[in-house]
């Protein structure tokens, strides 16, 4: 969902996976310091949101391409995470996180309900608010949007901040799932986020986006990876399959455009 808002502005957030890692480390360290799991979760989301805000601010104020900025923050955040954690994982023992990872309400587990809530909130923000209209206008043609009085810089900063916010939520779910804050970046998170957006029909050139599409794209990618695992296909081939699908989907989108 976070990557969708960024791509809708014709940008890309390459620092997303590193933000998830840093958010997890912040959560683990704050919880280990004895401040409690709820404060740790709040600070985790605030830290990743600040990363997104910083990305947007540098891109708009410095007029630097988003690819360069987010690639730089990817490296910087990774280094910061390693410095804070010392390169060692931090165990997080929490009843709340354990219930979040393994509990359920009705037919679905709590992580699925969190995902559904994220999809609904993103849909409302994109299609039922003035911000959503301004976001798509900025991605479609930034000069025209500016001429119409839209504060395009603020819109872009908000999009990257939303991406950081979603990274914080993902970090909480990740820590809940594995029970620790790992200082190693999971690069598949970045590739899969972009792949889900592309498969969902969001234009890489900005101006056209959907919310349900990327959600279905994420489910398709998960089904693909799980299917390859069940078929005993080597894990080395899984990134190859995902990458090929992304390139193919981008080519099809370009042809349709």
Structure description:
The protein is 74% helix and 3% strand. The longest helix is centred in the middle third of the chain and has 27 residues, at 152-178. A hairpin with a 2-residue loop joins strand 2 and strand 3. Helix 1 packs antiparallel against helix 9 (152-178), helix 2 packs across helix 9 and helix 7 (130-140) packs across helix 9 (152-178). It has one domain. The model has no long low-confidence stretch (mean pLDDT 88). The protein has 257 residues and is mainly alpha-helical. The strands form two sheets. Strands 1-4 form a two-stranded antiparallel ribbon. A two-stranded antiparallel sheet has the order 2-3. The protein has helices at residues 2-8, 16-32, 37-62, 66-85, 95-102, 110-127, 130-140, 142-147, 152-178, 187-199, 212-230, 238-256, and strands at residues 90-91, 104-105, 108-109, 180-181.
